[in-house]
Amino acid sequence: MGRPCWTHIIIHHTGAEEKDAAQVRRYHLSLGWRDTGYHYVIERDGRVVPGRDLSLPGAHCRAGGMNFRGIGIACIGNFENHPPLPLQEEALENLIRALRQQYGIPVEKVLGHKEVPGAATSCPGRFLELEQIRALLRQPPYHGSAYPLYRVQAGAFRERKNAEQLVQKLKKAGFPAFIVPPGTRVPR
Ligand SMILES: [Zn+2]
């Protein structure tokens, strides 16, 4: 088993109506896995909960070798039965934007689980509109959110490496931190 090299982002639903990411983790641990199978789990209120560390291969999509190539993101819910909640969709979009920037992943390589050749699954469900997500990702980020969001800023730096150091610290503490590139408009 080699080290993972992230070239894709794979979108999942959990397919069950878990209460939160902790429940997903308990379930995966009960299967004998070392951690949550996904790298991120998005709860109903849009909270992004880190799953297994990105230094580890995932356990979310065997097809196409995607456990080693695809960052696994799962939204809680069964999107065969209902659409994702707006805050979840917004969090998904923002997380994918941050990961694409960090790993240089093109929009075409942001796939739903069922779109991976060889994957026999309906995941992430017929109500999660993958084409629409990719279309959104091709647009500049929309900051005039329809939902009031209270963002927490932890720092602003002239040197990128100082920003990266703070991101590392926050990630170690369990926060899904990312760098907002210069020139990005941030709501007041
Ligand atoms: Zn899946």
Short recap of the structure:
This protein is 29% helix and 11% strand.
Task: Tell me about this structure.
The chain is α/β, with parallel strands linked by helices and 188 residues long. The chain folds into two domains: 131 residues, 3-Layer(aba) Sandwich (Lysozyme-like); 39 residues, no CATH class. The protein is 29% helix and 11% strand. The protein has a five-stranded mixed beta sheet. The longest helix has 18 residues. The chain is globular. It starts with 7 loop residues before the first strand and ends in a 16-residue tail after the last helix. The structure holds zinc ion. Zinc ion binds next to loops.
Which key features would you list for this structure?
about 190 residues; alpha/beta; Lysozyme-like; five-stranded mixed β-sheet; 5 helices; 5 strands; about 10% strand; globular; binds zinc ion
Give the count of structural domains.
Answer: 2
- CATH 2nd-level architecture of the largest domain: 3-Layer(aba) Sandwich
- Using the CA coordinates, give the radius of gyration: 16 Å
Write down the secondary-structure element order: EHEEHEHEHH
Ligand inventory:
zinc ion
- What general form does the structure show? globular
Structural class: alpha/beta
User: What amount of the residues lies in strands?
Assistant: 5-15%
Secondary-structure map:
Blueprint: E1 8-13, H1 21-30, E2 40-42, E3 48-50, H2 66-69, E4 70-75, H3 86-103, E5 110-112, H4 130-138, H5 160-172
Parallel strand pairs: 1-4, 1-5, 2-4
Antiparallel strand pairs: 2-3
The site of zinc ion has 5 residues, from loops.
